[in-house]
Each structure stands twice: as C-alpha cells, then as structure tokens.
Design a protein that fits this description.
The chain has 290 residues and is mostly helical. 60% of the residues lie in helices and 0% in strands. The protein has helices at residues 3-10, 32-35, 38-41, 56-85, 90-113, 118-122, 137-146, 161-172, 176-186, 193-196, 208-219, 225-256, 268-275, 281-289. The N and C termini lie far apart (55 Å).
Length: 290
C-alpha cells in the first residue's frame, strides 16, 4: 500500500466501525487507522528484489502475520500459565481454546504461501541472505513455553538482549505442561518428585508413572473434572501445533524440494524430524492405557 493510502486510513474513520467516532466518548480523537497504527503496519513491507518481484510481497506478509499470531499465542499462554500457578484451571479452558484456534488459523495460512511456485520463489530467494524462519525468537519462545527446550538455540539471539532474556527466562521456567504437573501434585495426585523438582531447562522425559496419574483422571473424570478438561485442552494445543508443523513441512517441500533452507538450515529433513516430536507424551500414552 502506498504512503498516501496508509495516511488516508489513519486520518479517517468509518461510521460503521465501532473503532471510529460515535462510541461512548472514551476514545475521543482515536479513529480506526490511528488505533491500529496502520500507517506503521501497512508500510512495514519492504521487498528487496530489484526490480521488486510481485510475489515477494506475499512472502513478507505471510511471515509478518505469522509473527503477529505468535505474539498473541505468547500473550495467551502467559495468562494460562499464571492461572495454573494460582490453582485456577477454569480460566485456562477458554484461553487454550483460543490458542488452538490461532494455531489452526496460522496452519491454514500455509495454503496461501503454497500458491507460490518453485520458479517464482527462486526469482527473489537470493535477497534473504542469511535470514531464516529458524531465527524467529517468538517461534522459539512458543516452543519453550510448550516444553521443547534447547539451550543451544539461545545463541541465535545473543544480539537481541530483550529476546535473549525472554528466552532464557522461559528456558529455566516450567513449561505449561510442567505447570500442570505441579498443579496436580499440589492437588495430591502422585506426580513423581523427580519430574517436578528438577532442572526445567532440560526437556521433560516420558514417564509411565505420570501416565498412570492421567489414567486415574480419565477413568474418574467426575472426581477430577477440571484436570480432565485441562488434559483435553493441552492435547488440542499440541495437536494443532503438530498440524502447523506438518503444513510447514509440506509447503517447504512443495516450493524448494530437498534443497537446503535459507540461512543454511537443513530444510525438509529437519522439518520431517520435528513433526513427530511430542511435548506432552503421557497425555498421548494414556489413550493406549485406557
């Protein structure tokens, strides 16, 4: 969008939009464009190809919108984790349902990028230099919050002090799954002490004793209704995240095949490996046990 059009958006309001004038007066002087900072948002797309390749705009917007959705996932996950620490599971149900829907939306976005053909992509791929989605600090933060911990990933963000600090804090803190295990322990369920009194910077290890705790919850769900609901919410979130990873894999394979990814990343072989990663293993294992 041109600078003039973006400015027009910030300087006008629509009578049919609740963000325009005519509300309860609390937002006097605020209109749709200024509230959403559209001037900044719509002028944040800067293709580097010369002359600008038509499809580079698609590539930029696809990744920018994904980062915005990641920002919301992080915002929601933090709220859910705070509620678990207060021993309040019910507020998590809506929050995690929202996270699942965000993940579904982000997964569906891959179908837009899939309209980019291999030959079209190659016409502007070279302008990325060493840039890669592998460097997304927010994606890594989401993974850490879900429990996929890897201290080695911190080195990719050493030049960004704020991002590095956020990741370091998430690395050493319990994931949302571990917060749930801590909650279950506080409620008197026999969560093994070595599963919750440990170095949280290391990934959670599959433990059949925890599977038995979940078996108790599922077979006596009326006695553990909130915990039962939370189990299903967490399964929803991990399933949606796995679908996002799978769609990423297939779109990358469709566009670049088995070439190395941007910035020297392994590409499809690496993405295939992470599709099958499980972050809440006992919640999947219990299905076999029931």
């Amino acid at each position: 969008m041109s600078q003039s059009h973006a400015n027009d958006n910030e300087g006008s309001s629509s009578s049919g939009c609740p963000l325009g004038h005519g509300g309860d007066g609390t937002g006097e002087g605020v209109n749709y464009g200024s509230y959403l900072h559209l001037n900044s948002l719509l002028n944040a797309q800067h293709p580097l190809s010369e002359p600008a390749h038509h499809d580079e705009m698609l590539f930029i917007i696809q990744h920018q919108t994904t980062e915005l959705w990641f920002k919301l996932v992080i915002h929601e996950m933090r709220l859910a984790m705070e509620a678990i620490r207060r021993d309040e599971l019910q507020p998590c149900f809506k929050v995690l349902a929202r996270v699942k829907q965000i993940q579904t939306t982000v997964a569906q976005q891959w179908s837009v990028l899939a309209t980019l053909t291999p030959s079209e992509y190659l016409e502007f791929r070279g302008v990325f230099g060493s840039a890669s989605g592998f460097q997304s600090y927010q994606y890594r933060l989401v993974e850490f919050m879900l429990g996929n911990k890897n201290a080695g990933m911190l080195r990719l963000h050493e030049m960004n002090a704020e991002a590095h600090a956020d990741l370091q804090a998430a690395l050493i803190s319990p994931s949302i799954y571990e917060e749930f295990l801590l909650y279950l322990s506080r409620r008197g369920l026999p969560i093994p002490s070595d599963a919750i009194d440990r170095d949280f910077s290391k990934p959670h290890q599959q433990d059949p004793r925890i599977t038995q705790v979940f078996k108790t919850i599922y077979t006596n769900r009326h006695d553990h209704w909130d915990a039962y609901q939370m189990c299903e919410c967490l399964v929803d979130v991990e399933e949606a995240f796995s679908i996002w990873r799978f769609r990423h894999l297939k779109v990358v394979q469709r566009i670049i095949g088995f070439k190395q990814g941007t910035g020297g990343t392994p590409g499809v072989p690496f993405l295939k490996k992470i599709v099958d990663q499980t972050m809440f293993p006992e919640l999947w294992d219990v299905r076999t046990e029931l």
